[in-house]
Write a structure and sequence with these properties.
mainly beta, 4-stranded antiparallel β-sheet
């Protein structure tokens, strides 16, 4: 049984930072590509970042140079360090993994960027 649990969201002022974490069970995170998505109110869910099993990463253009996705193999988590946060980063953030053709999502963690 694969389970993903996100944490680390909260309220932050523009320009601030947050670090999100996605704790996985039922899989070894280093064996899979994993993604962060986000969904703002009234918008479709948007892909944000991916970490591949080799540790390389990709990002949507809007977060490049501000967000960094990483993996902690000891804790079996994938993390998203978010710096220089903007109002438009406000969303629920989800992690996702695909295993044997089945997609698993976490429950999400809310990030609110507001002054």
């Amino acid at each position: 049984q694969v389970q993903l649990v996100e944490s680390g969201g909260g309220l932050v002022q523009p320009g601030g930072s947050l670090r999100l974490s996605c704790a996985a069970s039922g899989i070894i995170v280093s064996s899979y590509s994993m993604d962060w998505y986000r969904q703002a109110p009234g918008n479709e869910r948007e892909w944000v970042a991916r970490i591949f099993s080799d540790g390389s990463t990709n990002y949507v253009d809007s977060v490049k140079e501000r967000f960094t996705m990483s993996r902690d193999n000891a804790k079996n988590t994938v993390d998203l360090q978010m710096n220089s946060l903007k109002l438009e980063d406000t969303a629920v953030y989800y992690c996702k993994v695909t295993r044997w053709g089945r997609i698993y999502w976490g429950q999400g963690t809310q990030v609110i960027v507001s002054s």
